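Q: My hope is that you can spare some time for a protein that puzzles me. Underneath my words sits a plain record pairing an amino acid chain with its backbone structure tokens. Those tokens are not coordinates but codes from a learned vocabulary of shapes. Thank you; the sequence and its tokens follow:
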Amino acid sequence: MILKTYGWAFGVTALGLVLAVLYDGAAGIGLVAILAVLEISLSFDNAVVNATVLRRMNDFWQKIFLSVGIIIAVFGMRLVFPLLLVGITASLNPVDAVKLALEKGPVDEPGTYGYLLNAAHPTIAAFGGMFLLMLFLNWIFGEKEHHWLGPIERFLEKIGQVEAMSVIVGGTVLFLVAETFATDHAQTVLASGVLGMVVYLLVNGLGELFNIEEDDDSDDEEEFGQSTPARKGPSEIAKVGGKAAFFLFLYLEVLDASFSFDGVIGAFAITNDAIIIAIGLGVGAMYIRSMTVHLVREGTLSMYPYLENGALWAIGALAAILLYSIEHEVPEVVTGLIGVAFIVAALITSIVHNRSHPEDAHVGKSASPAS
């Protein structure tokens, strides 16, 4: 089971360590290991949120998440995207951007790769922060199967009955951020933040739209006797494919990107070598993906009812940290510990709940997991 679930991660780890040795000798191994742990600690809550989406996708799209998604996450977001971002902001062609990255200049020296990437932080933080904030607001204002922080979540759920409340609150937060402590980058923050909101609403909305259309198609087929869809048990979730799954896949990739942006910049506190950073964070990203699949296969979200709540509160905290970090430095260890604290607290309260209410405990692995 471990090899089946974490085989890709083990394989990428071995490849990453070989590349690190060939590129930077024995020192590269230690740096890659540290960066991988950094990525895992920062993105563990991402694995839980990913699992809530992935379990809605059929086997084919779960496999796409583990194959094509790996290429996008490891090579695209951790290596190619930072190069493109530096190239665009510094008006460099791809070749010059790669040369600049290989020069390994210090992050506090103007004109270096790390300096230019760090200078793009307001853009990155505003986009990622607003995307994650919209995800959190959409959840906190919506109906939930379980209420972890009962009075707070029920109160906000009632407020969420006002149409477009998540957009109203998100837009207000963005305006306040741009007009208060992010005044030096107000236009950049507003533009990037609005784009983050639009991307979230577009991808999430299209996914829900096609999900509804596919459900209607299934109902029509059953009515005319063309097919008989399998009925879901009390702890099972309908799995989607086609266009609905495609947009869920895009949603997962943008979500992963929102998590990875800040990690790439923060990694320069450990090393100024962009190649080692890409390898280390790529290895860590693989374990997050494998953890996501593990959670789906084991039915962990059903067994621990408050785990999803804890992860989404962690997402809300991360969104706030990203927006705050536009003008104020936040240590990576603080970001990682806050996320882990929410997850651990939700896990502990779930265990306590299951022991006191054994009749409510949902035990059982999800059917037909992706290989």
